[in-house]
Write a structure and sequence with these properties.
The protein is of the alpha/beta class. The protein contains 17 helices and 20 strands.
Length: 473
């Protein structure tokens, strides 16, 4: 071998090991232990590939300006609730809701308010018609924030409703995630702006991403506020049910009326401020509803100092005393959430996981299957809903608490995505959610430990490998 080639080989070997050693000292100080293990494994095998990927995707950083604006907006939310002090809901006893309420308020800034009406909309077409009908009835403003919008029949219908509203003089604003709604932005932005609708993309990519944050951070929220009358919060995007071929979606959306509508609008105003620098006025005045339901808003995302979604979900799991039901399309929990589920089941709580039998993310599906054996062994019931891709995201705790929104039970939702959750402290909402859960279970395949342990050995190996990549999913 020529001496020149030998020197090049030595230099490459030195660089290779320098990257490994530097990663060993650097990565664990900038991310969680579980995520650090995944990244170190990748860098150890492929240093020249792993390091650039880590620099791009390894640390969930946001620009200082976004973090500053979030802190400023959170403080404005707390101060803006002062006129609503008389509407504060106080838990009646010392059960789970009395413990979760102060945690959620300290994490996200929203106090619990009474005087609301909440209806759970389980029909895909019906919930979209409710949204479009509300836009058509709007007199003052229509504010929509969605992760995904497709150029299909649903996208067309929503755009037409917004154009009609803007033509009546309604102030219409639309926030769409720059990546998730790329098709919708490309198809509709020019038409909407020409009609007078204000449209902005959230967390833009391309050459602008460095002004926002890590390039794969996304705004995954789905919400809408129409006048002072109604708000919608849930899992449903602005797209036809079958926008992913072979995986027609089933969703759940909460329609809210009452003082809680002001809180959903405040959440829209926060994201509008983060993207545009313009702070919108939010009136706290909303008519009280005869149903008098109590609710609380849970925002989460990388702009907050703590993992709001993970802390709240884990606390609700620990607070469950009788029955806990979790419905999620993507179940890739971190170790602490997995331990919370195991402890709840071993403590005698009936823990039911409702997942989708079909999944549009094969690697995520393998990673979640890696958790099944441990959970089944400690008594967690796992059911796989078969008729549709179950994209709904909600949980119920005993008979008192229901959570619905955009939160998946995975590390991406806990650490990387901006999410929204609506917590209802009302037995009527929980009872309705139980009915929906019962419909899922009636059309689900129920796993047993013996059945799951009989799966092929190569399948176990694939699950284990996918589990190692949980921090990337």
């Amino acid at each position: 071998m020529p001496e020149h080639d030998s020197n090049i080989g030595l230099w490459l070997l030195a660089i290779d090991w320098l990257i490994r050693i530097a990663a060993l000292f650097w990565i664990p100080t900038r991310t969680t232990p579980a995520a650090a293990r995944s990244w170190l494994l990748l860098v150890g095998f492929l240093p020249l590939v792993g390091l650039p990927l880590y620099l791009l995707l390894g640390h969930p950083w946001l620009s200082r300006e976004r973090v500053r604006r979030q802190a400023e907006a959170s403080e404005a939310i707390r101060e803006g609730q002062a006129p609503q002090a008389a509407l504060r809901w106080t838990p009646p006893g010392t059960d789970a809701d009395s413990e979760i309420v102060p945690l959620v308020e300290r994490l996200g800034g929203f106090m619990p308010v009474r005087g609301n009406a909440v209806e759970l909309l389980d029909d895909y077409h019906g919930s979209l018609q409710a949204l479009i009908g509300a836009i058509d009835a709007a007199e003052q403003r229509a504010h929509l924030l969605y992760y995904l919008m497709h150029d299909d029949a649903v996208g067309d219908a929503v755009v037409q409703a917004l154009v009609r509203a803007a033509g009546r003089g309604v102030h219409c604003r639309l926030l769409l995630d720059a990546i998730g709604a790329k098709r919708g932005l490309r198809a509709y932005a020019r038409t909407l702006r020409a009609a007078g609708v204000q449209v902005h993309d959230m967390l833009p990519g391309g050459l602008r991403w460095r002004r926002s944050g890590r390039m794969d951070l996304r705004n995954h929220r789905k919400l809408a506020v129409i006048d002072d009358d109604v708000a919608f919060v849930g899992s449903q995007n602005l797209a036809s049910a079958g926008f992913v071929p072979g995986h027609p979606n089933r969703e759940l959306v909460a329609e809210v009326r009452g003082p809680g509508v002001a809180h959903v609008e405040a959440m829209f105003a926060v994201d509008w401020y983060l993207e545009t620098g313009e702070m919108l006025e939010v009136s706290p005045a909303r008519p009280l509803q005869d149903e008098d339901m109590a609710l609380q808003l849970l925002p989460s995302g990388p702009a907050f100092p703590f993992p709001n979604a993970r802390d709240t979900v884990e606390t609700l799991i620990h607070l469950a005393q009788r029955r806990l039901v979790i419905t999620t399309p993507y179940f890739v929990p971190d170790d602490s959430t997995l331990n919370a589920l195991r402890i709840a089941a071993l403590s005698g709580v009936q823990v039911q996981l409702i997942l989708s039998a079909s999944n549009n993310k094969p690697l995520a599906n393998l990673a979640q299957e890696a958790c099944y054996e441990e959970l089944l062994a400690c008594g967690v019931e796992i059911s796989l809903y078969r008729p549709h891709f179950l994209h709904a995201k909600h949980m119920s705790v005993d008979e008192e608490i229901a959570l619905v929104g955009s939160l998946n039970l995975d590390i991406r939702s806990f650490a990387l995505n901006a999410e929204i959750g609506l917590i209802c402290y009302d037995q009527r909402v929980v009872a309705r959610m139980r009915e929906i859960e019962a419909e899922y279970l009636a059309d689900a395949k129920h796993l047993s430990l013996e059945q799951w342990q009989a799966r092929p050995r190569f399948k176990r190996s694939l699950e284990g490998i996918a589990r190692l990549a949980d921090s990337f999913l």
